[in-house]
Design goal:
By secondary structure, the protein is an alpha/beta fold. The protein has helices at residues 24-42, 73-79, 94-107, 124-130, 155-161, 174-179, 192-197, 202-208, 214-231, 262-275; strands at residues 9-10, 19-20, 48-53, 60-63, 69-71, 86-91, 113-117, 140-146, 167-172, 239-244, 251-258. Helix 1 packs across helix 10.
């Protein structure tokens, strides 16, 4: 069987289309490939497969370096050969939400899709209500993609979704945000890291860990996040794909995969082979 093309170029439709950098294409390739292998492998094992995108964007994105336009993660997930049984797409920005809504209605009106406008950290109860109930005779397996612009993701949001069965692919802006804003996060009034880790005492933990330099801060955040996911019942293995810049090959962020089932990890490892051999965490 021919592999799904997870980098789908499209023509302009005159709706709002945000610009992204060229390295986003690698992210799209990984997300689209995982959605494809997920639904293909699980379609006969579960009654319902649900795709959740907490930062769904506008549906299209234009590459700054080339001007070419591609479907983003949300519409890629809707383009796979074996679709999910339900899609839950969340977006806070009104302009992006309006464009996403139009594109979904126009191109994917045949799919079961629910759009939720607003901050996913504040609207998590709406997201949970949108997920079909898990019950005997109606088994359910959701996959949640989380693509925030920075560390503006609350761990409480992930914990609320991760109480049951849920696979996650989470963009962790550990270099784009955490590393660049190293000094600004230490003021007592700054709560961004506390919300991100779900640990108000993170400064005390960091001091005990001997963190002094920016490089150590990135490692500290990655380790603490991994520990939090482990507390939710997720596998211990660090499955993280590093995305680097095109110009200077600098590390930007990680796409971190979490599953409570070894089968999910098997799928993700297969996808990593499609994307690139870089699967290790480098600080």
């Amino acid at each position: 069987m021919e592999k799904f093309n997870s980098q789908i170029q499209v023509n302009s439709d005159d709706l709002f289309t945000p610009e992204v950098r060229e390295w986003s294409l690698e992210k799209y390739k990984l997300v689209g490939s995982y959605c494809d292998i997920f639904t293909t492998g699980m379609k006969n094992k579960w009654d319902q497969l649900v795709y959740i995108d907490l930062f769904a964007g506008a549906g299209y994105a234009q590459i700054e370096e080339t001007g070419k336009i591609f479907r983003n993660s949300a519409l890629l997930a809707m383009s796979i050969p074996v679709p999910f049984t339900k899609y839950i797409l969340c977006e806070q920005d009104p302009e992006r939400f309006a464009a996403l809504n139009e594109r979904v209605k126009r191109d994917f009106g045949h799919l079961n899709c629910q759009l939720i406008q607003g901050d996913s950290n504040k609207n998590i109860d709406q997201v949970l209500k949108a997920i079909p109930p898990f019950q005997k005779g109606n088994t359910l397996l959701p996959f949640c993609f989380v693509d925030p612009f920075s560390l503006n993701l609350h761990f409480a949001t992930i914990a609320a979704l991760g109480k049951g069965l849920m696979d996650f692919l989470i963009l962790q802006a550990l270099h784009m945000d955490a590393n660049r804003n190293f000094d600004s996060y230490f003021g007592d009034e700054n709560t961004k890291i506390a919300n991100y880790l779900g640990k108000p005492d993170w400064r005390t933990l960091m001091e005990k860990d001997g963190v002094i330099y920016k490089k150590d801060f990135v490692r500290f955040l990655a380790d603490q996040y991994q520990n939090q996911m482990k507390e939710l019942g997720y596998q211990e293995n660090k499955l993280m794909h590093q995305i680097r810049s095109n110009e200077k090959n600098l590390p930007l962020y990680y796409l971190s995969f979490y599953s409570k089932n070894p089968r999910g990890e098997e799928f993700f490892k297969k996808v990593l082979k499609r994307v690139s051999p870089q699967t290790t965490l480098e600080f």
